[in-house]
């Protein structure tokens, strides 16, 4: 089995060698795509035939038989979920009318598993080739899923811009994704999204001890620290796209980096991934494989003034932010969570932090003030704290910290450094066996990071009075333990380098981002890049936070502007620059205006003009 897996990884594009000796010369090989499907008529590339009305539907597309969902049903449902998780599709949000596109795009998809050198587990690669692909202006937009999402996680980012223009789109799940493995039934996910067992080729197959129970997922349990390889994942996806185009249009081949334009785009962790791909390739002929990069809200770490690792500020927020939010005026916080519902929990956190010696203060008001001052002293703005209330309400800080701790430490199943695990849960949060219907829907419904899709976090350290605090203290302690820990080593491997000289790079970031604050990521990255003489342009958008998908909630839509219009505009302008129809994009602090109680109008975005 191991030899077969190695051969498959080699054939699909990992670096392979004819000998197993250390230091042997490696050569890259790419074969024909492993799976090709047509998507036309009522099943297109961009919306799986759902259109804007179907994407706006409040319930996901149903399976004809929940016990045996078909691959095309899983695909349609995954696309529905990923559109809604990334874009504001509300009737007053303007998507598809003021900005963006949901037109029907017929074409083909090519998909496979690829493995970067040294990795234990593959990542998914997928190429969408529209029937209207422009052979006279060969264009591939390569992208990586945001967060830990599955292979369609960036369809609203890259597909919506590229496919209607006749460009192919190359996707990677960058070593994360929704290929959950059930430890009790020993089942995982096949290439087509359906469930498979030990006799099948699976997207993720962990090493499992006898008697293990619960759920494993690739981001936490691959043992690969996928973030260290984000740039290589993106490049392999682009290589796979060229091979897919060779198969789609054999009469026009070969498609190469030299004769095909490659633009990379991503948001959030996907934005961080494309910035990692922008680094010098160091492989001779492919040194200039990328033509431009657009990164929205990127999670990127460059040691230096102000730059902080994702794990650092996530674990800090998980501990202190619930208490610190009590310092902000009640009417300043967007809803949810409702202040009345959340305040008892936040008050309890303040008291627990005081008892643990993490903050000072004689009463709740003083404790909240101290927690707030600590966050402010570490670079958090009031805007980031306000928007961060959403991540507190949805327990997102803990979810991210738990998953990334496992990834950075390269922990196997059952070896989380703070004792966390994952499983389906009962109403009292105790673990239980997953159901067949739950397992069948994981590929389509999961976000790649529990809780969600019926999978929750099992915390072995739960203890009153603040039940999650002991586990959070452990997670934070892993960072404070010193540079010789496995986690610290994994975090260090995520450090970004500067982009290749002469490569146009545009970074777009909302100044109200409460999940990836620009002060910790994009601002120091851009400053370092400019100091190094790189061609990086920086668009800072006022009144923009991290999650366009939550703008469908009226109170968020009234308060914040979406980020996607700026990502699309940056793609338009950098594409014109490559065509010689515009100059290098200028830096801009964009005075965007939220829509308030009305509907979105294009003038509210204040998008900078093409240079």
Give the tags.
611 residues; alpha/beta; ten-stranded mixed beta sheet; three-stranded antiparallel beta sheet; 19 strands; disordered N terminus
Secondary-structure map:
Elements: H1 2-11, E1 15-16, E2 27-28, E3 35-39, H2 51-56, H3 71-86, E4 107-114, E5 123-130, E6 139-144, H4 155-162, E7 168-172, E8 181-182, E9 188-189, E10 195-196, E11 215-216, H5 218-221, H6 230-248, E12 261-267, H7 269-277, E13 292-296, H8 310-324, H9 339-355, H10 364-377, H11 382-393, H12 396-408, E14 421-425, E15 431-432, H13 436-445, E16 455-458, H14 469-480, H15 486-492, E17 505-510, H16 522-531, E18 536-541, H17 554-559, H18 564-578, E19 588-590
Tell me the radius of gyration: 23 Å
Helix/strand-derived category reads alpha/beta
Described by its quaternary structure, the protein is single chain
| Alpha plus pi helix count | 18
Account of the protein in words:
The protein has 611 residues and is an alpha/beta fold. The protein contains 18 helices and 19 strands. The strands form 5 sheets. Strands 3-4-5-7-6-12-13-17-18-19 form a 10-stranded mixed sheet, sandwiched between helices.
Short description:
The protein has 611 residues and is of the alpha/beta class.
């Amino acid at each position: 089995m191991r030899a077969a897996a190695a051969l498959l990884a080699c054939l699909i594009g990992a670096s392979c060698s004819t000998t197993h000796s250390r230091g042997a010369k490696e050569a890259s090989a790419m074969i024909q795509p492993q799976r090709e499907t047509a998507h036309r008529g009522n099943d297109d590339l961009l919306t799986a035939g759902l259109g804007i009305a179907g994407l706006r539907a409040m319930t996901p597309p149903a399976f004809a038989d929940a016990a045996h969902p078909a691959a095309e049903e899983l695909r349609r449902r995954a696309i529905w979920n990923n559109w809604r998780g990334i874009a504001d599709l509300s009737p007053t949000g303007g998507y598809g009318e003021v900005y963006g596109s949901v037109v029907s795009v017929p074409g083909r998809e090519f998909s496979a598993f690829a493995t970067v050198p040294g990795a234990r587990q593959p990542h998914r690669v997928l190429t969408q080739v529209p029937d209207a692909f422009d052979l006279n202006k060969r264009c591939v937009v390569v992208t990586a899923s945001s967060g830990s999402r599955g292979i369609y996680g960036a369809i609203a980012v890259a597909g919506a811009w590229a496919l209607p223009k006749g460009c192919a789109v190359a996707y990677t799940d960058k070593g994360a994704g929704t290929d959950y493995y059930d430890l009790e039934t020993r089942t995982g996910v096949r290439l087509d999204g359906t469930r498979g067992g030990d006799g099948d080729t699976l997207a993720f197959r962990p090493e499992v001890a006898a008697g293990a129970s619960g759920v494993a997922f690739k981001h936490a349990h691959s043992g690969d620290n996928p973030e260290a390889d984000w740039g290589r994942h993106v490049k392999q996806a682009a290589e796979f796209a060229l091979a897919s185009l060779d198969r789609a249009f054999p009469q026009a081949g070969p498609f190469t980096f030299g004769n095909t334009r490659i633009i990379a785009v991503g948001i959030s962790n996907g934005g961080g991934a494309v910035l990692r791909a922008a680094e010098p390739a160091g492989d001779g002929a492919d040194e200039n494989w990328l033509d431009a990069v657009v990164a929205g809200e990127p999670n990127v770490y460059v040691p230096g003034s102000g730059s902080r690792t994702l794990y650092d500020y996530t674990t800090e927020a998980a501990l202190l932010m619930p208490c610190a939010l009590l310092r902000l005026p009640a009417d300043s916080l967007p809803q949810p969570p409702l202040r009345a519902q959340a305040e008892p929990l936040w008050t309890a956190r303040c008291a627990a932090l005081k008892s643990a010696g993490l903050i000072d203060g004689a009463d709740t008001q003083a404790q909240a003030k101290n927690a707030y001052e600590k966050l402010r002293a570490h670079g958090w703005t009031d805007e980031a704290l306000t928007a961060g209330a959403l991540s507190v309400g949805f327990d997102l800080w803990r979810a991210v910290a738990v998953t990334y701790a496992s990834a950075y430490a390269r922990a196997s199943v059952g070896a989380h450094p703070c004792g966390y695990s994952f499983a389906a849960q009962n109403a009292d949060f105790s673990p239980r066996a997953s159901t067949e219907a739950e397992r069948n829907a994981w590929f389509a419904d999961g976000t790649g990071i529990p809780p969600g899709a019926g999978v929750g976090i099992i915390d072995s350290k739960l203890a009153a009075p603040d039940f999650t605090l002991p586990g959070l203290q452990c997670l934070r302690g892993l960072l404070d333990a010193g540079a010789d820990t496995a986690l610290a080593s994994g975090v260090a491997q995520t450090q970004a380098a500067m982009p290749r000289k002469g490569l146009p790079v545009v970074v777009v970031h909302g100044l109200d981002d409460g999940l990836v604050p620009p002060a910790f990521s994009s601002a120091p990255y851009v400053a370092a890049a400019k100091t190094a003489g790189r061609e990086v342009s920086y668009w800072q958008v006022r009144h923009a936070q991290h999650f366009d998908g939550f703008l469908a909630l009226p109170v968020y839509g009234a308060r914040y502007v979406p980020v996607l219009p700026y990502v699309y505009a940056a793609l338009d302008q950098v594409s014109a620059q490559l065509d010689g129809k515009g100059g290098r994009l200028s830096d801009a602090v964009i005075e965007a205006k939220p829509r308030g109680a009305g509907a979105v109008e294009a003038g509210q975005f204040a998008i900078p003009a093409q240079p």
